[in-house]
Amino acid sequence: MHLLRGAVRTYAWGSRTAIAEFTGAPSPTPHPEAELWFGAHPGDPAYLQTADGERSLLDVLRADPDGELGPVVRGQFGDTLPFLVKVLAADEPLSLQAHPSTEQAIEGYAREDRAGIPVSAPNRNYRDRSHKPEILVALSQFEALAGFRPAAQSVELMTALGVADLDPYIALLSGQSDADGLRALFTTWITCPQPDLDVLVPAVIDGAINYVRSGQTEFAREAKTLLELGERYPGDAGVLASILLNRLSLQPGQAIYLPAGNLHAYLEGVGVEVMANSDNVLRGGLTPKHVDVPELLRVLDFTPAVDIVVDPESLRGGAELVYPTPAPEFAVSVLDVEGEHLGHEIDAPTRHDGPQILLCTQGAATVYAKSDSVTLQRGAAAWVAADDGPIRLAAQEPTRLFRVTVGV
Predict the structure, then answer these.
(1) Does the domain formed by 313-405 have CATH 3.30.479.10?
(2) Which residue from 145, 197, 208, 406 has the least number of CB within 10 angstroms?
(3) In Å, what is the CA distance from 261 to each residue of 18, 64, 150, 192, 327?
(4) Choosing from 127, 183, 247, 283, which is the catalytic residue?
């Protein structure tokens, strides 16, 4: 078991304060910090702090895959850690995006290889052969657009905006099944000529302004989101696409799970994000980066996404809160040390014999494994190899640890 030093990624939409304050670093930072990666992705592996100095987690796994990953995980995923843990801090909206299925990723990666597109090229869609299911657990109030909403709800919103230019699109959406109508309308908007967008988007923005001024509340969040996106991305088809997506406000501790094909855009907030170990992204707008419309349409799932908010389930007498997902690559849970357990060593519930990443988001705890112990304070993380568990915890103050394991 070792402390992990995460890799910070700087993107324009990140925060100059959130990740720095979370880890106890000086704040504000010179550049926006968007993501803190704890994992073994080749693009930015975390580093173990050992007695011999720092070692890349990627190198450690290569040197002893059986001891670090365990035979069960190796049997299913090979010599690769199948999950990636991130702390995400958004001060501005992320791009409108979706992720491919495994089959789509394998086919797309091979196709772009044959075309001679370098893996690091900005116009490359597929940087690996993996799908990318993901769960985001809110640490602060977290705002998001995620998954297509039932068509009838979007029809109500467009009608409430009172924009005559939307009338033909309302007819298109309501004249067929939800999935077919959503596919037809989204495809129409995402392929709309720019001169047409330059007329339609401002008209929709004017409708949102009038709606907010009217004092109506049913679609107030959606209207304000239209205004915010329209100000940042004038003339962008992604502004219109937001009308078709669920507008969510997650409270701390709530989560959303997004399987392949779900269109989404995180808007603002701080959260713990866990995903399959992939960097495949198909963008659809709200970004200056590469947008491949035909490929995005190929991977999107237009089935309305309902009940995508995930609340944790209390297991083992409340000792562990588990966020259930069907993803085999990861399992996410929370260990809380509080009340009568403070000041005592307690056994963490055993999940299985695979590796673990622990991330402290509140308080401080000493974690004991077979080989060693480490103290985790807020913002710190630890790697527990497969052959180093099970673990025990001790804390003097209320403490919360996120635990990520393989979902096998």
Answers:
(1) no
(2) 197
(3) 29, 35, 16, 21, 14
(4) 283
CATH homologous superfamily, domain 2-64+76-145+250-295+305-310: Jelly Rolls (2.60.120.10)
Same fold, 2-64+76-145+250-295+305-310 and 313-405: yes
Number of CB atoms found within 10 A of residue 5's CB: 17
Within 8 A by CB and 6+ apart from 32, the residues are: 10, 11, 12, 13, 14, 15, 16, 91
Alpha carbons 389 and 210: distance in angstroms, whole number: 59
- Is-catalytic flag, 298? no
User: How far apart are the C-alpha atoms of 250 and 258, rounded to whole Å?
Assistant: 14
Pairing of strands 47-50, 364-368: unpaired
Kindly report the length of the chain: 408
- 0.90 exceeded by the pTM? yes
The residues facing 50 across adjacent strands are: 53
Q: Where are the alpha helices (DSSP H) in 17-137?
A: 18-23, 57-63, 65-69, 71-77, 102-114
Q: What is the pLDDT of residues 109-166, one digit of tens each?
A: 999 999 999 998 999 999 999 999 999 999 999 999 999 999 999 999 999 999 999 9
